[in-house]
Amino acid sequence: xxxxxxxxxxxxxxxxxxxxxxxxxxxxxxxxxxxxxxxxxxxxxxxxxxxxxxxxxxxxxxxxxxxxxxxxxxxxxxxxxxxxxxxxxxxxxxxxxxxxxxxxxxxxxxxxxxxxxxxxxxxxxxxxxxxxxxxxxxxxxxxxxxxxxxxxxxxxxxxxxxxxxxxxxxxxxxxxxxxxxxxxxxxxxxxxxxxxxxxxxxxxxxxxxxxxxxxxxxxxxxxxxxxxxxxxxxxxxxxxxxxxxxxxxxxxxxxx
Length: 256
Prior knowledge:
Elements: H1 3-20, H2 29-44, H3 46-49, H4 66-70, H5 77-83, H6 97-116, H7 134-142, H8 160-163, H9 167-174, E1 182-186, E2 192-200, E3 204-209, E4 214-218, E5 223-227, H10 229-237, H11 242-252
Antiparallel strand pairs: 1-2, 1-5, 2-3, 3-4
């Protein structure tokens, strides 16, 4: 084999080897930052906010967050990460500036992706829940719905639209959480005790009285009456029309 032939063979072999080996394209600085942010987000944030920042069991959807939309280079997101939001169950995270920058890059990327695919959104915007007639909702609240028997617009529901916004408000309307049942227990002697229901099954009933003392009795040994606000809401679920819910939501959102 001549020198030229051997050299040509080597060139062909090198070309084939190059064709079989995928080229490694370096990531841009922004892409590298987003990838680092994805890893950090999955480690520290996904449990609450979902792996794609679209919302989780306890954390809101960051892709539709007004704070994220107003953020410029982490000036809004960074302080929230560092200081947390203890009142909403979010702890503070002690992260370096590069880690904060990576998280910010990832969150903004996910927000951009969400805007590119609006039909795939999983969130419910506040405006989606304002399609009802507030006056009709007020009439239902005070009339056919029977809501005024337990609630007051100027009492327990004053400011409810500030405490619960959008879907959270509708969830409280349909499936209220944190509402405690009251119970009145009448003893064989005729004495009646009233307090907060603490325990109940087929064998026993327990309550905490207004002074914080716990009492319990065999269920068959006393008479008792339970006032459970959650049960009242559950019974309404089978009676609501779509218009009832839309109108009630429109009315409740005026109680600020």
